[in-house]
Input
Amino acid sequence: MDSADVVVIGAGVSGLSSAYFLAKAGRDVVVVDKGIVGNEASGRNGGMVSERVDEPALIPLAVEATRTWETLADELGYPTEFVQEGRLQVAVTEEEMGALHAELDNALRHGLHAEMVDSAEVRDMIPGITERTLGGLFFASGGHANTQLAVQAFAWAFQDLGGRLYQNTAVTGFQVVGDRVAAVETTAGPIAADMVVAAAGPQTGLMAGLVGVHIPVAPARVEILATAPIEPLTSMALVGNGLYGHQAVRGNLIFGGGAHEWADVDLTTTPGKPNTPLIRSIARRLAELLPDVADVPVIRSWAGVVEQAPDYMPIIDILDHPSNYVVVTASAHGFGISPATGKVVSDLVLYGETNIDIGGLGLGRFANITPDWRHQRGWIPAPNRF
Amino acid sequence: MVVGAGAAGTAAAIEAARAGVRVTLVDENPIGVSMMGLDVPQFIGRRVKDPLPARDVMLERVVAANSSLAEAEEAGVEVQLGTCVWGAFRNSDTSRVLDGPQLGLADDERSWMVKYDRLIVAAGARDLAMSFPGSGLAGVMGANGAHALMSRYQALASRRMVVLGAGNLGLTTAQMALDRGVEVAAVVDVSSSARGDEALLSRLRGAGVELYTSHTVKEAVGGAGEIESVVLVEIDDDCDPVAGTEKVVAADTVCLAIGLVPNVELLALLGCDLAFASERGGWAPVHDDRMRTSVDSVFVAGDVAGFHDGMVLDAEIARNQGRLAGIAAAESLGAIDEDEALARIDDLKPTAVDAATPDAHSGWQRWHRSLVNAGGLEVLACQCEEVTRAEIIGLQPPRYLGRGSEQASRRNLRTQAGANPVNADQVKRLTRAGMGHCQGRLCREQVALLLAEESGADIADIPVMSYRPPVRPLPLRVMWPHDEPEQVRCEWPKWFSPTHRVLG
Output
C-alpha cells in the first residue's frame, strides 16, 4: 500500500502551505486533490493580504502571515506577486465612516498599525477616487498577491522538497483503526498515513462526516471580475463602495463583492461556478468608486465556492477522535493567512501544539451547535427551480 | 431569442416566427469602432477604412448585405442590430437566484437583460489565428474579418493581399478580394496541393494568382507598424523550412484563412455539452439531428454547430440547420405539434450530407509546426499579454515580473504533464497566455496546439480553456445596470458580515 508520514487532503493554498512546511521539516508528505492545484477558492479570490481582520482571534495568525509573505517568494523560489503597499478602506457614507473609527479603535487596541486618513489624503493615495469619499482607514502592512501564482509556488516548492502531489485523485473514505486513521482511501487506492491534514475547503464538513465528526461549515458561491489592464493607478489593496480588490501588477483591476449564494457540494465533483447578472452591479460599484475608469472594459468575471463556519472564522484543530486528523478550514480568510496556516498546521502535526495563538480557532467553540444549524440560519441553497 | 443574423440565424428566426412564436433576432453588427480596434469579435487587423462611414450608413450596409432580414421582419421577427450578446445565464446546482434563463445584451451605450423561453444560438465561427514573426503588424487579419469588411461593411482598406490557406475558405477569400479590386499576391498552403474547390482554383489561376503549395510564412516585414512584405519559404515533409527557398512577396495584408472555430462562448456559459470533433472545427456543441443541444431550452444552427470547409461553398447547409432549429424550438414551445413539425422538416431541401468531412486539425497542426520551425519559439503566441511560445513551453512567470528563479527555469510543460493531463486553464493562469483583452480569441487554438505538441498529448485531450462572461469586452459604464432593482442597491451586503452572527 502507498504510504506517507502525512496525507494532506486538498491542493488549495492552506493544504499546500501545510504540506510545504511539513516537507521542509523532513516529513514524507502526499497531497491529494480531486482536481488540480489551486483551481477552487484558493486561486479565485481577490488576493487580499492584511493584518486587519474581522475578529481578534485571527490577529496573531494574520500578523504572522503578513510577515511571512514578505519573504515567501524568495523562500519558495517562485513568484507570488506579493505587493505590500498597504490596505486602504474608504467610507462613502457617514455610517461607514463611523464603522471605520470603530475599526481603528479595535485595531489599535490589538497593537496593529493603522491610521485614519481624511478625504484629501485618500484622493492623493488613489487619484480619481469618487468625490463621495469621506475618509479612509489605512493599514500600511496590507497588500495583495497573485492567487494563482502563489498557490502554484507552494505546490512547486513542496515538490522540490520531494513532496508528492496526486491531482485528480478524490478521497472516498478513511480506514479507522482504534482511535486513529490508518489509511486514506482514494480513487487512486488507499494511502497509509501517520497523520491526516484535511484542508478540504467547502468539502470540510463532508470529509469529517466520513470519520463521524460534525464540523459546521457552509459552502457559498461568490463573484468577482477583472477589467482590461490600465496604467498604474494604485498598488494598495482597496476596499470601498461595497467592493474589495486591487490593481494587479499587470494592470487589471480585480474587484469583487456583493451577495453570496449558499450552495451544496459533494466529495468527488468540481462544483459549478457560474456568474450571475450580479457582475453588472459589481461593475457599477467599481465605476462609482473610480469614475475615471468607467470606459475600461470588463474582460472577465468568475466565481468561486468558499466555506463559512457559523462565526465566519477559520477552524484549525486536531480532532479528539480520530486523534491523528487535523482539520483546517478558513472561512474565506484562507489566502491571506495561508503562510501562517501552513506553519501552524505543521506545528500541530509535528508537536501537537503551536506557539502562534490559535486559541479562538478550535472546534470547541461549536460544542453546542446542532446538526441542523444551516437550516436554522437559512444558510442553505435556494429551492431548486431550474 | 435567436443570436446571430447570418444565414442560419435568420432562417431559424423566420421558421419559428411563421410557426407562431414571438421571436427576437439579435446581431452585433455593425460593430463599434472600439471593438474593431480590439479585433473583437472579428479579426480585422486594423485594415478597416479610416474614417469609417457613419453608423447609420454602416447599419444600411449590414441590412443590404443580408436580403433575408427583410423577410424576417415581414414574418414578424423583431430584429435588433448593433446589439451584442455578452452573457448567458441560467440556474444550476450552485446558482439558483434567477427567475428564468436570460441573456445579457448591450449596444454601445448600455446593457440590459432579456429573458427567453427558447434560445437558438447561431453565433457563427471565428478566425483561427496563428503567429509568425511580424504577425502583430497592422495588416494581419482573418478570413472572417476580411469577409465582414468586404461584404458587410464595404470598408476593407487593403491593396495587395497574401492569403494563407488554400482550402475553400482561402480560395473564396481570394476571389472575393479580386472581385473588389484588391490584388491577390499569393495563396499559400502547407499542403502539397490546394485543398479547395477545383473550379474556384482554376478561376484564381486564370486571374494570375500565384499558388504556393508546401510553403509557409517565415515572417512579415514592415515599417511604422504596417506590413510591407511577407517572406515565404518552402517546407519539407517534416514541415522544416528549406534553406535558400525564401521568396519575398510585397503585400500590405496577410489574411489567415486556415480555418474557422465555432463561437461556442454562450453555449459554454449555459453548460451545453461541448465535444471535440476535428471534422467540426474542434470544440463544438453536442446536438441531435433537430439541432437540440444537451440543454433543453437551447438550440444551435450554422457554423457554431460545427464548421467544416465545405460549408463555405454551400450556405444552404447553415440555412437548413437554421430552419431545423426554428422548427424544433417552435415544436418544443407547443406552437406546432409533432406532425406539423415533421411536415415542415419534410419540406426542407436535402443538402449534401456532411458526414465525410475531413479532420481539420492535421492541417492546423501542419501549419503550426511549419510556423514554429520557420519562425522559432521567440514569437508571441499571445499578443495581448505578450507571451512567447518559449514562455508557454517553459511555463515561465509573466515577463513583467522580471527574470525568473533557477527553480522556475526547471519547470516546463513536460515536467507539469508528468502525472496529469495538461490543463489549458492552468497554463493560462501561470503564463497569462489567453488572459488578455481579446479574451483568448487569437491564441486559444495555437496554445492548445502547442500544448499538444509539447506534452505529446492528442489535441482532443487538451481541455478547452474556460469561457467567462462578459464574452465581449464591455466597458464598466456599459455594463452598469440602469435597470438595477432598488433592493440590490440598498441591500448590498458587506463581505460575509459577522454582524449577522448568532452563535449556538
